[in-house]
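Predicting holo structure, (2R)-2,3-dihydroxy-3-methylbutanoic acid bound.
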Amino acid sequence: MKLQSYTITQGRDRAPARAQLKGIGFTDEDLKKPIIGIANTWIGTMPCNFLLRDLAVDVARGIREAGGTPMEFNTIAISDGITMGTQGMKASLISREVVADSIELVTRGHMFDGLVCLVACDKTIPGAALALLRLNIPGVILYGGSILPGQYKGKDVTIQEVFEAVGANAAGKITDQELLDIENVASPGPGACGGQFTANTMATVMEIIGLSPMNTAMVPQVDNRKHAVAAYCGQVILDAVKNNRLPREICTRAAFENAIASVAATGGSTNAVLHLLAMAREAGVDLVIDDFQKVSERTPLLLSLKPAGQYVAADVDKAGGIGVVAKRLVDGKFADPSALTITGRTLGEEAERSAETPGQLVVRALDNPIKKSGGLVILKGSLAPEGCVIKVTGIDRKLHQGPARVFDCEEDAMAAVTHGKIQHGDVLVIRYEGPKGGPGMREMLGVTSAIMGAGFGDTVALMTDGRFSGATRGFMVGHVAPEAAVGGPIAFVEEGDPITIDIEHQKISLDVDEATLAARRAKWVAPPPARKTGVMAKYIKLVSSASEGAITSNVY
Ligand SMILES: CC(C)(O)[C@@H](O)C(=O)O
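Done. Tokens:
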């Protein structure tokens, strides 16, 4: 096997490179083997990625045992949970690009033969996938695993309950002590947020699309089995390198549709729309936002996971893992079983090998779905000509008509909700929070939770050119495109304008006559960029529309 790493490790001219590598303990024998980069998103600022340093040791052991040479390097992570509701959240989506770019750069520089990407918090997962698809060298995504749920008054709680408790406290429904009690128990240790929020949604996606070995992701981060899972990923990558199994062969159109089906069936995060569109762009697969509507419509909702349901990732693990979801999708013909995965087995074969725990209640039988169609609906119309997304899991309303309450940033909307300034029936419009406008499409979990916590969940709607957390629930429409900062129709909404959001007909409209709108459009002036230097300025310049996945890499 002629290895790409030989360019850097073999022959006379590479003596200086070998000298340096020998200085850190590598031997001639090591350098003849496939060199596998371990891209680690460990960071000591959040629970999600906290134990990844330990897991990297197991991955390295697995790589050595399988006949390879591991080389570990770091990249970054930004916590959504910790930055939520602040200006810090603007760094979150931008970090996806930095994770992808940094993995790409180290791998191109050091010419690894394969990669294991150790990920956990939301953006690190698609960030790693974008890098693998760009590089198109064998690669495994290893999800560090979810947190265990906390316990409050005999019930499982996650970070979602803390966010909603803030809203309930602001509305005078719970005391400061109760809020503190929930805060103190919600995160009982390391691991990514527990519900089918963005991290667990994207971890599900990675198994179904085939970049993570089946039944590795849902093992919780603190579970001892995770060490064996990590070592196993070392074996998988060596096998993938030997067989030259490439990300773009795995991530085909069929695999993307399978992944969308898994998001629909599990009630996953709306962020999956953004990340899968971005991944498809890197994979050269022609996937458009309407494909999410088609796949979600034909896929049943089979799992009752938080935020709208009752279970968490640790329960999916106990039920048998994502392999059980794969089994349902394949059995019901909602997924293509012939799609290849990183192990060399097809999705159908992986589903077949998965052991469902007898009597488990988490993944419903095909004849007993929660809903006949999946969790995501794509809306289009005069307010969002390029589309926008709503998660319908757990909402019963199909139509909302109401007056616009317009906010030019998240903070203003939050203040209105927490100071009793919204009315039943309102449509909160939060704009200039899009990819370019924010920049960085902040997640609005603070506001959406405050709405739920204050008891407006059944009566108000919200729409934004920003994003939502996977923990957001309620009548919340995100990713409205084109965004306000580029002069999308959302920029022309005025206080009190009637808005219609019609889920059944997948429509979102601003019910104002064309002449009035034309006059508003004519006097609209684009706001100056929020940042003129640094990473955010570069991002503002390069980032594409949310309907294209908000990517920065296809600049030519
Ligand atoms: C739950 C969090 C922190 O909001 C985030 O992880 C997400 O799901 O988007």
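Residues 195 and 312 are 5 Å apart (CA to CA).
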